Amino acid sequence: MVRQGYGILVHPALLRPLEDRAGDLTRRAMHIERYDFGQIVIDGVTYRQDLLIWPGTIKKDWWRLEAHLLQVPDVAEALAARPQVLVVGMGQPGRLQVAADLAQYLKENDIDLVAVPTAEACRIINSLSGKKRLAAALHLTC
């Protein structure tokens, strides 16, 4: 980890240039079949824990530094994949918040941020999957 601005730790992979982000979208489109409070089905696999997703990877048992605050270190692995869009599923009622430093980092690196309740995030992911290079942070409960 490297200390970078705002007094936060940043994964070294995030310091790479962000050129050529349009290439290599994904090997195949991912499809979210169903989301219910505490459970999501992606490509036929059921998950019952929060997920961090980037092209080719679904990281289960994903935890944040603070339960309901999403910060740069929480999504460093996904950001290292150089997404065009970060979709944040804020939970069913939308309790997960995006920290100002993360929003600023995304803006500075031309990464679009979509932060909405998780059900809506799932619909957005399905509509963009295979069209945009996506990363997603999905809080499945509150």
Structural features, described:
With 142 residues, the chain is of the alpha/beta class. It is 17% helix and 31% strand. It is built from three helices and twelve strands. A hairpin with a 2-residue loop joins strand 6 and strand 7 (57-59). The termini are far apart. The relative contact order is 0.24. Residues 1-12 and 14-27 have low confidence and may be disordered.
Quick summary of this structure?
With 142 residues, the chain is an alpha/beta fold.
Descriptive tags:
142 residues, alpha/beta, Hypothetical Protein Mth938, Chain: A, three-stranded antiparallel sheet, 17% helix, 31% strand, globular, disordered N terminus
Widest beta sheet: strand line-up: 7-6-12-9-11
What fraction of the residues are assigned to beta strands by DSSP? 25-35%
- Give me the CATH fold name: Hypothetical Protein Mth938, Chain: A
Q: What class do helices, strands and sheet pairing give? A: alpha/beta
Shape: globular
Question: Average pLDDT value?
Answer: 87
The beta-strand count equals: 12
The CATH architecture classification is 3-Layer(aba) Sandwich
Name the CATH superfamily classification: MTH938-like
